[in-house]
Amino acid sequence: MREPRFTVREAKAEDVHAMLGLWAATPGIGLGVGDDEEDLKRFIARNPRTCLVAWKGGILAGAVVGGFDGRRGYLYHLAVRKDYQSQGIGKALVAEVLDRFREIGARRVHLLVFTTNQQAVAFYTRLGWRLRQDVLVASWDCEPGKDCGC
């Protein structure tokens, strides 16, 4: 008997625990500030159309979260369970989220990948993403009482 195909749908609050578990188990995904259940639920509530999960036979096979700032789309934490890779799940999640970004008016989408995550770099390159060499990413953790130095 043939194994059922996967289903892609919008992420819900009840998916958050499984999503965080998937990301924690996926090499190359960096979890940090803002990657907890409450913050992820808030992110999904702000970006319901661009946070997606792929389910296959009752198992979370893949997930991606996307955010839109009114100009650009941003992809974060695309992951597919190791035992479900090479079945088109990652590609389907990216295609669906890009369609949704187009629908809401994004003209460009950015994503962040650790330079050490060569599997992800190769995946996105195969899909036609352009690796940028002209920008750097700088981060600031907004901790209570932390002086910004301004």
From TrEMBL:
All residue ranges annotated as the N-acetyltransferase domain in the record: 6-149
Gene3D superfamilies linked: 3.40.630.30
Example of a GO MF term: acyltransferase activity, transferring groups other than amino-acyl groups
InterPro entries in the cross-refs: Acyl_CoA_acyltransferase (IPR016181), Bact_Acetyltransf (IPR050832), GNAT_dom (IPR000182)
SUPFAM superfamilies registered for this protein in UniProt: Acyl-CoA N-acyltransferases (Nat)
CDD domains for the chain: NAT_SF (cd04301)
Keywords: Acyltransferase, Transferase
Any Pfam family matching the protein: Acetyltransf_1
The name this protein goes by in its record: GCN5-related N-acetyltransferase
